[in-house]
Amino acid sequence: MSQERLTRIEERLTQIETKLKTLELDIEPEGRISEGFEYLSGDIDSFRNETRKRLDRLEHGQHRIQASLEVILRHLTAYGQDS
């Protein structure tokens, strides 16, 4: 084998080692992929909490509308009033 071919093989092995180390760092529990999932998890939790708050407000508003409609209905029909 020629020296030039050996040098190319060594360079290629060095490149492969570097790529493997990069992948290991990305995949490890504290790596970038895990950080990405943690970030997405936080976004999902925030979205869930905001959705719950909005649904609670919507439900409260519906109860208020229902109560108002009952008052209006009683007034219009004289339901529950002494005659």
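^ that was protein a. below is b, sequence first then the tokens
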Amino acid sequence: MAQSSAPFGFKVTQRILALRSTYDIVDVATGNKVFIAKRRMFTWRPTIIIENIQGQEVAKITANYFFQNKWKITVGPDLIGEIEFPIIKFCGIKFDIMLAGNQYTASDVFGWSFKAVGRDGSIGFTLDKKFFRIKDTYRVDVYPPLEPLFGLAAVLAIDSRYYRSSR
């Protein structure tokens, strides 16, 4: 199935001088900062909060404690997504994502450029991690009809799961 519309693009950049993992999220089309994502400190389970520019929480991403292989995405009290990662990371990573009632399978051979594809062949979102940067930088493209915030939240979970060794 062909994509019907252009994707919504985000540029995600990690702040270098922050006590915890903090990301500035910019709308690629306008160049304006639209969100800030912060990893909570001193929690039993890894938790990332996405805030709007006014500092209000718009989404929360939380992992299970033990293996950190199951992540839940909530907006307020509503569960809008779940991601289940493989417990052991091999070359050729593949995992399932449920977002807003749609199921996607995300995969990449090396773990740097994920693409989430729906059962009908449509693309939900892509993650393109940049190599050789002082701070984590990556591009996220979220394709309609998936809500851009939901795709962004899924990508932040992927980043936290697979790239946390760089924190």
